[in-house]
């Protein structure tokens, strides 16, 4: 028995005729033997009710919606206010006589209210039970002959019955006492009832029972049995109510501190509302923030910090500017992926397929990446190294990072570090500043939404430094696998675990990267592509992509292999393939324009079409020296965009022994020229040079492409050869290029970037390359195409260089001079490969 289902006094209409709600008793009728009650006719119109049993002596509201029921009211009420109420046995919308119970109640219609939707609400006073003897009408509504049923009362001297009635009354009053929110009228009604049958009917109508059980009580004419049956139901519900009360008391005794704070917080809120100090919605915003923080599963120490901020937020007036700062901070904490992870896909075969799909060749790099993923598979909690892809632009460094993320099934984020000079871009700004925000690392973690993404730090060699700090120094903690598990951004000011992030850096040139930062990364070099590799990349990747981007189908634009070679040779000069893709795209756009105009349906791209679309060749591939001339040498240089051929020109004219350097030569290259000059002057006898030649002559060393800055020690060999060739009046072979650093003892020291330099030599049409003997180990990594087309001469000292570089006839002269100066004259030409 509950307050709303049992003792409601308010006359709220209930949908008892065709709905799903149970109507509520709104009062108690007069006694069954009241002479003022209307006479019950022998034939009654039958109103079928669903989900409800009406007992004599009660007044209830009923909502009538069925057309047949509304017809019953319209035709019957003008003649008689008495109708029959019979409960349905089934849930039919149009019940027949067989769908109804055989016993119901005769009721007097007290009031009828018509509703705007066409339905009607009637208040009925239930009078007596009746039984259906014979159905006389089924359409438009049911009408039946009825027999009034009279209750069977026990003898007045039956003490057992009297005790049962008293017990029922006391139990009902106790039930009302333990049931919360029961109207006071219910107690008064029960205490004032003297008829045991009416009291049993009133309690039965308000007990929480199923319809068949209530119908069974309605059909029970023996009042003594009815009272005992209702007593069992009331006692059972009284025990249940006692248990509920005990459970509520137990819960109340376990009132936690958090609940107590919430209760006190509600009181404070009510006081603030009374004082007009809290606008509507402030508390809802705080609770929403708290919910988001709990859903984010913050670590305990972070949640403690968040609780402090929530406490501050609650104490601040909403007009305070500090409110927006705290709200932004808490939202940042809630948005961070403290415990959200992507499930790693460590299928090495699938990873190999993805790498092969996205990138051509680069076998060494792919092998290292597969090893990296294999270690992740065997030791998921291990701290892997920070990878750094080093190479010229356009060789696929950034796309390799995306391929790693695809292979692992992780989210991918790219951070461009080029031009960043403010350390706060990495570590964030303190919240004391206006417009403060987290650093780039935390922002990317917030954006990807997982704790273990792949983050690419692009162009790490382009970081700058000024009065605002050094961003490269801020990256030291981020890129240290043993420290970044507690990375502290200045904005969030709590530790955040970055140990599960795979960081991949890219750079074009490592000299600009500080040594401590280089020490934290494993450098994987991605050298430039050979012409054969570019041709395969263009055929399998670039053409397909450009056809799709320009709206062309493969059959509308077919490329001949010779056309791609023409683009590579005459219209690009780069280590990567970025410019190559642009030129292919230009040709595809030209064809797309013709197809769109309807001029052609399809076209095969030939070398002639390439020249027609792109114009005259932009580069002359045969860039080596046409003729040999004393003082002019072909050197090799390494730049951030790949290898380049470097011509070094030296000339002399009468003067006072001065030297002039031009061509934007850096300090290291200037020192190389000075060292080369000193080395030549120390060997004048072997080279057949007059000792007075340097005193009476000025020297001018120039490196063409004067607008391009140049620096580095690897041109030392070329500088020495140029000056020695100039003063010995001996031409240098035009098909030879050289690289290497020299010492004052004449030794040739190793250099870097050998692959890029040899690729540049190959592009320029060089046939032989002189390299330091100490670089022999690097020949293994060179492409087979380079090894097959270039001849390599290994030089230990400058004598080896001169023997290989000078013209054959002049070489014999120098060899004889060396023999005459004390040498055995039997030293062979330097070893070539």
UniProtKB/TrEMBL annotation:
It is found in: Cytoplasm. One of its GO terms (biological process) is cellular response to heat. Gene3D superfamilies: 1.10.8.60, 1.20.5.5270, 1.20.58.1480, 3.30.230.10, LON domain-like (2.30.130.40), P-loop containing nucleotide triphosphate hydrolases (3.40.50.300). GO terms for cellular component: cytoplasm. Induction: By heat shock. The keyword Cell wall biogenesis/degradation does not apply. It catalyses: Hydrolysis of proteins in presence of ATP. Residues 1-21, 812-833 are annotated as: Disordered. ATP-dependent serine protease that mediates the selective degradation of mutant and abnormal proteins as well as certain short-lived regulatory proteins. Required for cellular homeostasis and for survival from DNA damage and developmental changes induced by stress. Degrades polypeptides processively to yield small peptide fragments that are 5 to 10 amino acids long. Binds to DNA in a double-stranded, site-specific manner. This is Lon protease. The gene is lon.
């Amino acid at each position: 028995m509950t307050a709303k289902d049992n003792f409601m006094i308010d006359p709220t209409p209930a949908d008892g005729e065709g709905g799903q709600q149970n109507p509520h008793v709104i009062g108690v009728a007069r006694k069954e033997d009241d002479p003022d009650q209307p006479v019950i006719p022998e034939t009654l119109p039958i109103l079928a009710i669903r989900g409800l049993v009406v007992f004599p002596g009660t007044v209830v509201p009923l909502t009538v919606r069925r057309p047949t029921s509304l017809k019953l009211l319209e035709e019957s009420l003008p003649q008689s206010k008495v109708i029959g109420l019979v409960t349905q046995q089934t849930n039919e919308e149009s019940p027949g006589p067989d769908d109804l119970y055989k016993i119901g109640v005769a009721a007097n219609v007290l009031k009828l209210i018509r509703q705007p939707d066409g339905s009607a609400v009637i208040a009925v006073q239930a009078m007596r039970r009746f039984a259906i003897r014979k159905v006389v009408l089924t359409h438009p509504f049911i009408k039946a002959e009825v027999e009034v049923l009279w209750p069977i009362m026990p003898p007045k001297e039956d003490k057992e019955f009297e005790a049962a009635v008293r017990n029922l009354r006391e139990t009902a009053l106790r039930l009302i006492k333990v049931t919360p929110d029961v109207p006071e009228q219910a107690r008064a009604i029960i205490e004032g009832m003297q008829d045991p049958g009416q009291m049993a009917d009133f309690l039965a109508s308000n007990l929480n029972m199923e319809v068949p059980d209530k119908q069974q009580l309605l059909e029970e004419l023996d009042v003594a049995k009815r009272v005992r049956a209702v007593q069992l139901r009331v006692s059972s519900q009284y025990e249940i109510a006692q248990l509920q009360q005990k459970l509520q008391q137990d819960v109340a005794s376990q009132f936690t501190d958090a609940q107590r704070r919430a209760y006190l917080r509600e009181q404070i809120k009510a006081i603030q509302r009374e004082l007009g100090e809290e606008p509507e919605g402030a508390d809802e915003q705080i609770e929403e923030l708290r919910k988001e923080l709990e859903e984010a599963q913050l670590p305990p120490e972070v949640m403690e910090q968040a609780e402090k901020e929530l406490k501050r937020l609650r104490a601040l007036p909403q007009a305070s500017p500090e409110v927006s700062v705290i709200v932004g901070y808490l939202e940042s904490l809630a948005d961070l992926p403290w415990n959200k992870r992507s499930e790693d896909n460590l299928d090495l075969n699938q990873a190999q397929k993805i790498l092969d799909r996205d990138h051509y060749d680069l076998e060494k790099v792919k092998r290292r990446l597969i090893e990296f993923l294999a270690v992740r598979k065997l030791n998921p909690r291990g701290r892997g190294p920070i990878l750094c892809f080093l190479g010229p632009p356009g060789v696929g460094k950034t796309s390799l990072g995306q391929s790693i993320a695809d292979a692992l099934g992780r989210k991918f984020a790219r951070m461009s570090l080029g031009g960043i000079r403010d350390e706060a871009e990495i570590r964030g700004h303190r919240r004391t500043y206006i417009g403060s925000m987290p650093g780039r690392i935390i922002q990317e973690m917030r954006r990807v939404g997982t704790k273990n993404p792949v983050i690419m730090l692009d162009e790490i060699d382009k970081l700058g430094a000024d009065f605002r700090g050094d961003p490269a120094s801020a990256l030291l903690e981020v890129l240290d696998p043993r420290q970044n598990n507690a990375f502290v951004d200045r904005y969030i000011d709590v530790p955040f675990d970055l140990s599960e992030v795979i960081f991949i850096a890219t750079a074009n040139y490592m000299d600009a990267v500080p040594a401590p930062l280089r020490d934290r990364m494993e450098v994987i070099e991605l050298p430039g592509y050979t012409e054969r590799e570019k041709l395969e990349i263009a055929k399998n990747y670039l053409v397909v992509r450009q056809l799709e981007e320009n709206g062309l189908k493969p059959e509308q634009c077919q490329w001949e292999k010779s056309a791609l070679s023409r683009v590579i040779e005459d219209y690009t000069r780069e280590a990567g393939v970025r410019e190559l893709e642009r030129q292919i795209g230009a040709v595809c756009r030209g064809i797309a324009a013709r197809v769109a105009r309807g001029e052609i349906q399809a076209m095969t791209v030939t070398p002639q079409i390439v020249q027609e679309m792109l114009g005259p060749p932009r580069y002359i591939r045969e860039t080596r020296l046409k003729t040999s001339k004393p003082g002019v040498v072909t050197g090799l240089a390494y730049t951030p965009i790949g290898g380049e051929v470097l011509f070094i020109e030296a000339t002399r004219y009468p003067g006072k022994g001065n030297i002039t350097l031009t061509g934007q030569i850096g300090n290291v290259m200037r020192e190389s020229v000075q060292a080369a000059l000193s080395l030549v002057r120390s060997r004048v006898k072997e080279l057949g040079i007059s000792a007075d030649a340097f005193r009476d002559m000025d020297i001018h060393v120039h490196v063409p492409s004067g607008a391009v800055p140049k620096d580095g020690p690897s041109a030392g060999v070329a500088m020495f050869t140029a000056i020695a060739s100039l003063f010995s009046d001996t031409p240098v072979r035009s098909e030879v290029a050289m690289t290497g650093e020299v010492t004052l003892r004449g030794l040739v020291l190793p250099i870097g970037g050998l692959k890029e330099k040899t690729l540049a030599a190959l592009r320029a049409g060089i046939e032989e390359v002189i390299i330091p003997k100490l670089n022999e180990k690097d020949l293994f990594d060179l492409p087979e195409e380079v090894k097959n087309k270039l001849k390599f001469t290994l030089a230990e000292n400058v004598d080896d260089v001169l023997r290989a570089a000078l013209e054959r006839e002049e070489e014999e002269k120098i060899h004889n001079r060396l023999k005459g100066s004390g040498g055995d004259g039997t030293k062979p030409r330097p070893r070539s490969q």
